[in-house]
Specification:
The complex is a heterodimer. By secondary structure, chain A is of the alpha+beta class. Chain A contains four helices and ten strands, in the order H-H-H-E-E-E-E-E-E-E-E-E-E-H. The radius of gyration of chain A is 26 Å and the shape is elongated. The radius of gyration of chain B is 23 Å and the shape is globular. Classes of the chains: A alpha+beta, B mainly alpha. Chains A and B meet through helix 2, helix 3, strand 7 and strand 9 of A and helix 3, helix 7, helix 8, helix 9 and helix 10 of B.
């Protein structure tokens, strides 16, 4: 490869990487602080994956093309009979070690941030999963919303979260294992009977988002849906007052 | 009785010959593959478009439960066991396995267990097994799954697990005690090394799983409360026990096929394996690490919030990465006959499995799991390892050792078509599923809303299954044809290196009439090239 071609390729690569960094590479943008954090980590992992896979694919395809057997070859011809090369082997073991140490450290930091629960959440939402629906309670606001028994035609219940403030979700299950997943928040958590689990959601975008049960829970698992609507804090207060009245 | 007289079904049913048991394992496992594949067809047909078209929800839930159970416990793992049965004694220069009758018993336990699993799915009057292949309680417990299906499933899987344990004892004993003179552990063919590590993993991982299933059965039938919070039990305990099997199990499913392609790539590159010692050490490292990664299946439970399992999972990527460089180093400087069908499937393995590996690193990260766990992203990831890896390895193995087993070649030209349709169909099926999972489609659902961006990827995925099915049917047709009328292969059509290529094809009843001198990793190669022996 001549130098100009190499330079051009590097420029193209940088442009692609730059474009990639500003997109979410398949994962939703993340409509909560926690979801954005996870999406940023995702972008790093995808780029690292693309670089590593590109290098390995390149080596595989280069070997296949460069060292292919040709029709003109004597079928008895052998390849070069070498068995090992310790320095190269040490290098190709050390480089993956370095890569995974970096990725693991980043992953751990993100995990600590997104699972952190604030000392004073603005709203507490108790979510209880059952086969096949949800019971949502806002104890401070005196609001309770319960699914109609889910069926393929029924939309699930709608919950409302205030924008920009942490909502503490207290998740439980009444019967089997379920999972609370809002794909646009890039986050899910299992609801395991006999356990209580808590996490914070801090929405950064207003809008309506789809929620599903992500852990197979029997017959109507697919239809155990709900909706999350994120509104301004004032609108949240108004909504809560209306619904509790 | 001479081998010529030993024909007919009864001699197969009563055989203790490792070669026949190996072939019976492979054929039975392949039959299960066809059943499991048909169930995948049901799943993909239902998902081709939004809305409900073909089966009831209950039948759909049963289909993915039995699909997963069959593919893992009754197809890939037993096919690996069949290859080990056939190849290990031949590769180490032994006349048979250490315990031939135990070996026959392993096979029949597997067959019986497989039969029970099929019954659990299809023939139980009051509700088949429809709780997902990992049978999480309380869903699999007495209240939510009262039917006899789950009980049959437990007995079936337990029999298969016991069969695996017996095979493990047999393979390990055979390799440690029955190697031919000169066959030191550091001259052991890589497939046999992988067989040793695979069976050691089985020995470690299956007993806790059998205990987990026994407790589940007690909960179901005798009012035990092991997994029921109402009685002080905990469903998380089941998950720990189950995944302590489940994660080593995925290496049980892949290691034999790492072994397969690592036998094939050097032969068709006309070179020795690059970095044999490093490769074996990496295999041992994978075996050891794989017993410490199980809870990465449980990140979203919130019940394992320590970094240990994530760290171990990241670490296991390193020895796996090392293997890729072994394979590249082996091809480097070679004279690669890439168009031979066993080599094509091995190359397909490399290309597919790399995607499985890279997405595996993503899944090792707990926060990324918070989004993609239990989504179609995860489904696609493990199919890239289990189908793109193991199943391509299975086809590579079939094309490579079919001449050894029968003395005949499978069709090369048909083989290219089989490879082409499987490779294209596989990637068409599973690549869109990454997109689906990221966009928010959860697994194990028979339906999805229209206009969510799920329609096109699902349709493409279903078309991919159609393409793959053509490949599988083409293969079955060619297999039936070549068994009797394939071109004679001679004893060694490929220029093989390991000891099985130093005997006739098919081998005589006790494998070898004379053994070549074993001075290196490649005794059969050394015989052809005495000038290259150091």
């Amino acid at each position: 490869m001549s130098r100009p071609t190499g330079t051009r390729a590097a420029i193209v690569l940088l442009a692609v990487l730059g474009a990639a960094c500003s997109s979410s590479l398949g994962m939703p943008e993340g409509a909560t602080e926690q979801g954005r954090d996870i999406r940023e980590l995702w972008v790093v992992f995808v780029l690292a994956g693309v670089v590593v896979a590109g290098l390995v694919y390149g080596l595989i395809i280069w070997s296949l093309v460069r060292y292919r057997s040709r029709r003109s070859d004597d079928p008895a011809t052998l390849g070069r009979q070498f068995h090992a090369n310790v320095p190269i082997e040490v290098v190709y073991t050390a480089i993956p070690v370095a890569i995974v140490v970096v990725l693991f450290t980043m992953s751990l930091r993100t995990e600590q941030r997104v699972t952190e629960v604030s000392a004073r959440p603005a709203v507490t939402l108790e979510a209880t999963a059952f086969a096949w629906g949800w019971r949502f309670r806002y104890p401070a606001q005196g609001v309770e919303i319960v699914s109609e028994p889910s069926s393929p035609t029924q939309p699930g219940p709608e919950i409302v979260l205030p924008l920009g403030q942490p909502t503490r979700v207290v998740l439980r299950s009444n019967d089997v294992i379920h999972a609370f997943w809002v794909p646009d928040f890039n986050f899910k958590r299992d609801a395991v009977p006999g356990r209580t689990t808590e996490f914070d959601l801090t929405p950064t975008t207003t809008g309506t988002f789809r929620g599903v049960c992500a852990e197979f829970c029997g017959l109507n698992h697919a239809f155990m849906t709900f909706t999350v609507r994120v509104v301004e804090p004032d609108a949240f207060a108004t909504w809560a007052a209306e619904v509790s009245a | 009785m001479s081998p010529a007289e030993r024909t007919g079904p009864v001699t197969w049913l009563t055989t203790t010959d490792h070669k026949r048991i190996g072939i019976m394992y492979c054929v039975t496992a392949f039959a299960f593959f066809l059943i499991g594949g048909a169930l995948a067809g049901v799943i993909r047909a239902e998902l081709a478009e939004p809305g409900r078209q073909f089966v009831s929800t209950q039948a759909y839930n049963g289909a993915f439960t039995i699909h997963g159970t069959i593919m893992i416990f009754l197809f890939v793992a037993p096919f690996g066991a069949g290859l080990m049965n056939y190849l290990v004694p031949l590769q180490i220069g032994a006349p048979d396995m250490a315990f031939p009758r135990l070996n026959a018993m392993s096979f029949w336990f597997f067959g019986a267990g497989g039969g029970l699993v099929l019954l659990s799915g299809f023939a139980s009057a009051d509700g088949g097994a429809a709780m997902g292949w990992y049978a999480y309680p309380p869903l699999s417990g007495p209240r939510m799954s009262p039917g006899v299906g789950v009980d049959l499933w437990i007995f079936g899987i337990a029999l298969v697990a016991i069969s695996s344990l017996l095979t493990a004892v047999n393979v390990i004993t055979t390799v440690f005690l029955m190697r031919a003179p000169g066959m030191t552990m550091w001259r052991l063919p890589v497939f046999t090394w992988n067989a040793v590590v695979t069976t050691l993993l089985g020995l470690v991982a299956f007993p806790p799983a059998i205990a987990a299933f026994a407790l589940l059965l007690i909960d179901r039938q005798l009012g035990g409360m092991a997994y029921d919070p109402a009685g002080g039990g905990d469903p998380i305990v089941y998950q720990h026990l189950f995944w302590f099997l489940g994660h080593p199990e995925v290496y049980i499913l892949i290691l034999p096929f790492f072994g397969v392609i690592t036998e094939i790539i050097p032969v068709f590159s006309r070179k020795p394996l690059f970095g044999y010692t490093g490769f074996v050490l990496a295999t041992l490292a994978i075996g050891a690490l794989s017993t410490g990664v199980w809870a990465h299946h449980m990140f979203t439970t919130g019940a394992v919030d320590n970094p240990f399992f994530s760290a171990m999972t990241f670490t296991i990527a390193v020895p796996t990465g090392v293997k890729f460089f072994n394979w590249i180093g082996t091809m480097w400087g070679g004279r690669i006959r890439w168009s031979a069908t066993p080599m094509l499937f091995s190359i397909g393995f490399l290309l597919n499995f790399l995607i499985g590996g890279v997405t595996g690193i993503m899944l090792a990260s707990a926060p990324i799991d918070f989004h993609v766990a239990d989504s179609y992203f995860l489904v696609s990831h493990f199919h890239y390892t289990m189908v793109g890896g193991s199943v391509f390895g299975i086809f590579a193995a079939i094309y490579f050792w079919f001449p050894k087993m029968t003395g005949r070649l499978l069709g090369e030209r048909v083989g290219h078509w089989v490879f082409g349709t499987l490779f294209a169909g596989f990637n068409l099926t599973f690549w869109p599923q990454f997109v689906l999972g990221l966009r928010g489609m959860q697994r194990r659902v028979p339906d999805y809303p229209a206009e969510m961006g799920f329609d096109t990827p699902n349709l493409v995925s279903t078309l991919g299954v159609v393409v793959m099915s053509i490949g599988v049917l083409l293969f079955v047709w060619d297999w039936r044809r070549s068994r009797r009328r394939g071109a004679p292969s001679g004893d060694d059509p490929w220029g093989g290196s390991s000891l099985e290529w130093a005997t006739t094809s098919p081998p005589p009843e006790h494998n070898f009439t004379t053994l070549p001198r074993i001075r290196s990793l490649r005794p059969a190669f050394d015989e052809r090239h005495p000038e290259l022996v150091p």
